Amino acid sequence: MSEIQNLQTYDPFADTGEEDAGQPQGYIHIRIQQRNGRKTLTTVQGLPSEYDQKKLLKAFKKEFACNGTLVQDEELGQIIQLQGDQRLKVQNFLGDNGIDRNIIKIHGF
Amino acid sequence: MSDIESEQNLAEVKSEELLFDPSLKKKKKKKKAVNFEDEIGDDENQVENGDKSAPAEDNEEEVKAEDDDISIFADMKKKKKKKKETADKEKPEEEAPEPSEFGDLPTKRKKKKKTDMLEFEKQLKEGEESENRQDDDIFVGEGEQDIKETKVEETWLNSDRDYTYQELLGRVFQILRQNNPELAGEKKRYTIVPPSVHREGNKKTIFANVADICKRMHRQPEHVIQFLFTELGTSGSIDGSQRLVIKGRFQQKQIENVLRRYIVEYVTCKTCKSPDTILTKENRIFFQQCESCGSTRSVSAIKSGFKAQTEKRRRQAAQ
Ligand SMILES: [Zn+2]
User: Residue B264: its chain A contacts at CB < 8 A?
Assistant: First the structure.
């Protein structure tokens, strides 16, 4: 079982529609949303699954001095939510820690 | 003899003091430097640093007081020192802007702040300039567009030198445009009117000229609006007079940035950079076809991705 597991990681015949958004080989999407008033929140979607999301969140919170939570989305997998506009900080953090900056996509204004 | 010797010794000692104990002199240098800097700072930040100039004056007073002290201690040496100072005068002024020289003087921080402020303002100005430069790449107001048509003067005719390649190229284009005025339009830079964005109430933003901008980009408003909404992580509607009402507060610059990204992603041809393209949909996939070079490429669908629930929805869900 464990020997052939890597065969399942890539299926060339899979539908390339919206479904692949959460897969690890795709982009890391960093988005911003406005809340009430001047408040915003940042969501990080598509982080590689080999990273411990909880630890990442902890590191984010400490590094950026903001609060945050982990959200489980049925289709998109685990999402990190942070308070405030942390997009650039997240990008730099991930880039500095060995993630290819080209797969990080920042959205929003 | 001994008297003379002792005198000589004394003189030597004095000069040595002057040479090897430059603390007095150095202090003066420092103070000079501080004053020098303060003057600059005050001149340039007169309005803003109204409150800051007061402590600077205090410093000057302190400096003068210390000067007096020094003169009390060093009245005898003063003449010699002055000579040396005039000799050294150029040096301290050159050294003046060095902040590291200022050791533990209380003025250090203030000075640093000032230089920081100056530097910050400089950077700010540069930033603004570069932003402005960015602005006129696509979003140029109507009537502001200028077709860059430099008159090519055939200067080589009056001299015995040969024409350069650039000059010849210019000549070709000039003749080409003269004989084919319809080609002149092609040279025009691709421009779009800036989005007209203003706030409605406290929570909504109105993007008044969406329809116009979509028309200029040759794109369906639905597609553009879908992109805007997913990028901004919000929603909205179109009102009676074809204006887009966006939930949330957005500035013109922010909308402009999103539009710029839309143009890069969905309008300009990746092959020839022409914005003259059409977007067609085949089997759920969008294809962009270039009108100038004929290339076709598929473009990524607009994915909304994850959308965090804002508090209102959470409350609704809880109920
Ligand atoms: Zn093309």
Answer: none
